[in-house]
Amino acid sequence: MPLCRSIRDDVLIWPFNPDGVYTVKSGYRFLHEEQCRKQPGSSEVEVLKPLWNKIWGLHIPNKIKHLAWKACKIALRTKLNLVRRKIITDGCCDMCKTQQEDVVHALFLCPNLRPLWSTMPKWNHGTLMACTSFIDIFDYIFASNRDPDLFAAVIWTLWTRRNNLRLGKPALPLNKVTEFARERLTEAVTSTPLPSYPAQHIAATWIAPGTHSYKLKFNGATFAEMILLE
Ligand SMILES: [Zn+2]
Q: What residues does the Reverse transcriptase zinc-binding domain cover (predicted)?
């Protein structure tokens, strides 16, 4: 890996926020995740597996299950995700042009979607509106049995609509979204085999080399997660 040839001042970067700036919220999240990681049996796999099973148990087409799971895994090509991958530099939502477009914003919290959600009392709920991830949103919807089948179909329809708007294609009017989503529920549920739950990643640990030997360290990456991006 080539080294930078210019002289630059060192800067402090907080790696757990996309913009590199520390916030109390991101610090709290980091500590919470660290604590969960240290507890035996509470890895991401163990934590998410019940939700995975519930989503795959829904009576909806598999394409909608995939979308719901990608929303939970923050694996959709939202503008913020594209910024993180350094594909674009501006993560601002195209619809409201006021906030960063993460997955919860794009599908649930964008002010431009209020006319839709405000007509849905079962989902226009304070607890749901305070959620910061689709893991929390789906957890609550399943726990309180707020029609998870239709909810998943609605967010699938909103994501399709959002992509069409971005591409300048004809897009469904917002007041037709629920009706369109309801129709998707009547589509035959395909018999595509369910994918297996992602294997647990085992964190690598550094081991000191023996005496009189050197160990080269370099960064690498695999992109299994990026395959999930759509
Ligand atoms: Zn927005």
A: 22-117
pLDDT band at 13 (very low <50, low <70, confident <90, very high): confident
Look at the pTM and tell me if it is higher than 0.85: no
* Cβ atoms of residues 92 and 79 within 8 Å: yes
CA distance 90 to 53: 35
Confidence category of residue 5, pLDDT binned at 50, 70, 90: low
- Residue 205 above 70 pLDDT? no
The H-assigned helical ranges of the chain are 24-38, 44-56, 62-72, 79-84, 103-104, 114-117, 126-129, 134-143, 148-166, 177-185, 224-227
Please state, in angstroms and rounded to a whole number, the distance separating the CA atoms of residues 133 and 110.
Answer: 14
Residues around the ion ligand 1 (C-beta < 5 A): 93, 95-96, 110
Tell me the CA–centroid distance for residue 208 and ligand 1, in Å: 48
Ligand 1 centre to CA of 165 (Å) is 13
